[in-house]
Prior knowledge:
elongated; 2 strands; mainly alpha
Amino acid sequence: MHLAAIVFIPLVGALLTPFLYPKLGKYVGWWAAGLTVIVFILVLSLLPSVSDGEIHDYSLSWVPSQGIDLSLYVDGLSLLFALVVTGIGMLIFIYANSYLSSNEALGRFYAFMLLFMGSMLGTLFASNLIVLFVFWELMSLSCFLLIGFWHENEESRPSAIKALLVTGVGGLAMLGGFVLLHVITATTGTATWEIRDILERADEIASHDLAIPALLLILAGAFSKSAQFPFYFWLPRAMVAPTPVSAFLHAATMVKAGIFLIARFHPVWSETGAWFHIFDFAVDIPFIITSVGLLTMLLGAYMAVRKHELKAILAYSTISQLGLIVALLGYNAELGIVAALFHVVNHALFKGALFLIVGAVDHSTGTRLVKKLTGLAVAMPWTAAFAGIAALSMAGLPPLNGFLSKEIFYDVSLDEGVLIAIVAVAGAIMTFIYSLRIFHGVFFGEQTPEVTHAHESPKGMLIPIGILAGLCVLIGFFPALIQSRLLEPAVLSVIPHSDYFEHHNLALWHGFNMPLIMSCITIVAALAIYKTLVNRLRSQSEYAPKVGMNHIYENVFLKFLIDGTHSIFNRFQSGYLRHYLMIMVLLITGLVGYTIVAKSDLSLPGFSLRGLEFYEYALAALIVIAAMGTVLAKERLAAIIAIGAVGTLVVVFWLVYSAPDLALTQLLIEIVSVVLFVLVFFHALPFAKAKMSKGSVARDAAVAICFGGMITVLMLTVIYGGFFDDSLRNYYFEHAEHEAGARNVVNVIIVDFRGYDTMGEITVLSIAAIALFCLHKLRKREKEE
């Protein structure tokens, strides 16, 4: 129940918050913050036992017939992410109380924030693939609501839709991967949806033919959520959301979900080459995980350097940092996992602080443009100090926490080869440059008019920023604080037999080694490049690439989605009943015809027309003539009479074949149908006569012939071809008299075995009759008036 409480307290709080808001007013934020404090304490209480190797779980039956339970569990990996989510989330909720105006829709805002926290925690603790998917999509939905919170802003709505579409499509791909995993487990043993069972059967799953497709689909979901190439373009546009949303979603939680997913399934594929090298190249290239991560890191860093708006810089820097973490997860080394999980914590701390600092700057000055925000340290000294700590930690400068994880990144990159090491240094240089733009470019230099009236932020905003900045310093000096209790259990959850921390410790100083030399090169090169670029970047206009994934999304995907949907709708929703019937008839003909050809040999043993009497031929001929008359009649009344004649002749057939009860039923239906047709056409508005070309007539005739031929072949196949199993027919013959008390099997099927179906048909006819009666009475009343 402990785990269920952690997940469902925020979800229940999200449901209650809109109802409490009218009573609590502006204090509703403290109610929401109080819930996050409770959840954080509950998560923190798991730390001692989980760090000792204990796994907590909870299960509740959900869909037992499919083996789907509402099952949760927490190990070192999920606990690390959960502490990041709840700890930083708690500070962001406190910050939001001072940041947001009382004029905002606070009830809706905090409800969405709590919904997001609950869905993220559900994703982290899910022990069942379907449960994970449900919380994953709930997270996408709450993200959509938060990004579009200021829905009156024209940029908010398309940005929210973009995030929902990209992450939603990725989520569907991920679901496909989960289904393939379930299929793999079914073909190799007992089918299961449970993640823990899948991890225990990693060897047999990784060797299956469907392992690679499952991996690619799951990675598509992870890459889309964590803004990896080519799905990165949704994240910068999501910065239109309020700053607490950006800090919560894009620094601490949502974008980390894809990282978590990759780490969670690392044990399944990491023992094979599939995780690292899908294709065999002449040169051994880490194709999938690391290559995507490094490309995203370089692309995000380059774009961050070229941007002028603080939130845009942080958005692209987030993309870059996430790429770094993904690259580390793809390295074929134990040290890569250590560095990745360590940087998850470090990035959440310094990036969360930076987002909140940008919000404080915007709150005080009314702008986020770097070129308008020089010399701000005089007016906001505490904010400047905290910004320096957070920005330099992101740059990887000692003695801050970012320096430690960057050193490990360099170390493991060297093991992957010189080319990877060079890419790592290039990414770190650009990271240092955009970090300097945030810190030096905003808080130093001559004051601009925009900052002359700036003021320090209130304590409710400064305290959360100060805590995050303080943790950056504390972990930098004392990394052992999180090594044994938090980081080591997380690493063991990914690599169960890891002994890394038995021989190594996180430390600020490891001697004069190659990673330290690479850090020195990074600092010197970054300072030199920044000195030459700083003035040029200020004078340049906002960089917007002419070609990119965002352009493809807007000019190709959206255009196809909107224009294509409009075209398809106009084509298929023509307003003509005959078009709809033709589409349905063609679909049925194709599907049934294919099934007949594929499942039957089309041999009809014993089929013969011998023995039929001349009057049977005559009746059949009359039915054909009456049907043709229905089609060729030029007046509606003649067509109604002809179709009534078809039904009446069918009644005669029933009489010939000794089925008077069916004949009576058919006769009543024909009478009612003819009367209804006459009433409808008599009272309805006049219809314009459709003018059809000879080609359209020929097309409709061909469709009708194909459909009629298919029905004929289907009936003959059913009767003579052994198309169906005889067990169904035998069942009716064996049980009709005993269970229904009648020998007429057809009557029994209609009245007893299909009683509810027949009742439904009667209900539909009754509703239609009542509707027609009401229309008739309304028409009479209109005439009288």
